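Supplementary Data S3. Sequence and structure tokens for construct A.
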Amino acid sequence: MPETITLIGKGGRRFEVNRKYANISKLVENALEGDQTATDVPVPGVNDDILHLIVNYMNEHKGTEEKIIEKPLRSKVMSEVTTQADATFIDTVGERRQQLYDLILAANYMNIVGLLHLGCAKVASLIKGQPLEKIKEILQPEGGANAPAAAAADDRKD
């Protein structure tokens, strides 16, 4: 069984990652379950730039997930509710809200529970204590239309 696999994003970009690390994604784990010799896993539902972020997350976590962030969120400061590494990662991603929303959707698609909850916690930290009009603005993705974060927020109710 190969030690590394290659995740292939929607645009065809290839990302090599340790097989054990990639298994935090149930999508990847299920894809590899049927063929232990497989080395390539297409991830057609995730853009290359977002898959790159996910591979960074996988490498940081080395195949393990942090505890799910407590709800309701007890602080707007991510480093107070999760590890410093995860806080830095998600705060950086969250600087561009559309990127944050895309990451949440990709984490949901790839079934990476910890990352999904981390992304939703970041959205919660952005809206915590804000007036309704500001919340609407925060949840509005770049370019208008309906906010994908609203759909992803439903996932964190469990």
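Construct B, processed identically:
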Amino acid sequence: MRFGRPQGIAFNQHGDPFVVDALAGASGVYRITRESAVELFLAGPGLIGLAFDSFGSMVVCSNETAYRLK
């Protein structure tokens, strides 16, 4: 899989990379596995960034707000 317009990348506490990608109105968070496979982790409109907090929760930002996933 190729990314359209990567918006951000973050690594969880295990070192797994997650990428926010958006293209033509569709956006999602993708996890890249240790085998280099790309898996859709979360889909949502207007996603533009992500991070992990010190508790291991993912924080995903859209054009409107930020969401914390536990």
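The beta strands are 6-11, 17-23, 26-32, 38-43, 47-52, 58-62, 66-69. Residues 6-69 form one domain.
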